[in-house]
Amino acid sequence: MSDSEHDTNAAALSESSGWWSVISPPRRSLDVLAAVLTGVASAFALSGPGNAWLSWIAVVPALCCLYRSGFWRAFLFGAVAGVVETAAIWYWLAIITKQMLASVWLGIMFLSVLGLIYAVHFGTLYALIACVMRGMGRSRRTILRALLVVLIACLWAAFEYGHTALMMLISHIFPLPMGYAQWRTPAVIQVASIAGVYGVSFLIVLCNAALADSLFRRRFALIPWVAGFLLLCLLGGYLRLRYVSHDAVQGQSVAVAVLQGNIPAFDKFDRSKSSFLAHRYLELGGLANSTHPDLIVWTESAVPWPLQEDDELVTTMLRVTEPSHACHILGATFPIKGFTNKYYNSVFLVQPDGDITSQYDKRNLIPFLERTIHLSIMPASGTIHPAGREYVVGPRPPYLDSPFGRIGVMVCNENLYPPVARESAQHGGEFLVQLANDAWFLESSPINQHFAIALFRAVETGRDTVIANNVGISAIIDSCGRIKTRSEMRTHVCLSGKVERRKERTFYVLYGDLFAQVCAGISVVAVALSLVVYRRPVPDGDGRSAGAGARPPDAEDAVAGRNRRRDKG
Who has greater pLDDT, 340 or 190? Predict the structure, then answer.
């Protein structure tokens, strides 16, 4: 072979290993399309109420591509899938920012930052999955293929667990594990009482990985085993739904009424409209009294102005339940003594005579809306809250003491994080209440997502859950995640029903995210061993070493094969 031909081949080999080679050949363009398809399918599964079935196949296209991908190609595929999923699910972030700050560009910036976070998350996840695939080799032995499928599911669950912890630390918003797609399938989500939502994600990705492996290798021996395991989990879920009791306190169910005010977001904090707001809740309170409840639950910031002892309107609202002798739980802004513009976002247990006997102050504040962040692009107050208030993290654990036992409390976005509800149950909460105000959302998608997540907190803790949301969805949910009653969005309504007081602790309450932590440990070991194998020289078709970090047969092998055929010719 001449020097010029050698230089040409060397250039071709160098070009094939560059970043641009990911999308240049037609096959790789199809691989990127598969990553886009995975992102779209995952988004639809998580955001559409009738699209849960998509979650069982959503990741298959991307996983099939990873079998023939190196580390960086897999990272790029994952980044593409993450960006697409972010844009499809959280598009409303740009809309709500424009609504509150009159700047669509600022909303696009926030969405871009979120997209970058998800790109890194999924890119790293897919790259490590490709690494484990490479480490396991292309064995056709069923036992090794089964091990690979389990390791992929472990990696996925571990990354969701780590991602949720990270998002809770930096933003207190936006974690959305794949398991939430199954909120309408009670038998499937019962595994959350043991393994949390990450256990449901594990099952979903296990099925995706088995399908991808079978399609890629065209050998289907794994399918019956995975299907059998899934059916076993479903059987356990059905048995729990039908037979398992969470030790409800006998004869002590609590009659509950939920007030959904449907107050527009900006009207709620306009003091000139306080009479309208009070009239709406007094009307709903009268409807609630007619159902003879033990407890009436209001929404987050139902009284949006600071509570003052000499405020006659507040006093009237606090005593609205006196005719029915019912206690009530309501959200209100509570000023911190000694500060002029610092408040707690609080929840109060109020006796029928208007006396406040217990209080919880929200601890997980939403950045920019509740937690001030001073940036040059933000208002001088550092917040986009309509009232310009600065909220402070509360010091109290998440529960209220009441005549009906201890009640666990979550405020708005706090239901996104399993540890909050778990802590409530650990402190003796016998049922849960979530107070929220989703009036900020102009779209229905985030409201549906917010509601779906609450069902998992009920299953994980084994506690009946009451949701009081200003614009909906309000509901009463049993300890297995079944909806007893619910409201429609954007209507003012009074819901009524009963919740059971429960004391038994689920495995999840006792041990938390042990399953996800075990998955993380297994993943670390698997990735470490795979990296050792990945860095070993891999012989090419002539038996020569391809060098450390060689990729699976793709462009490099194509160039080498073409050269050998030309030399022979």
Answer: 190
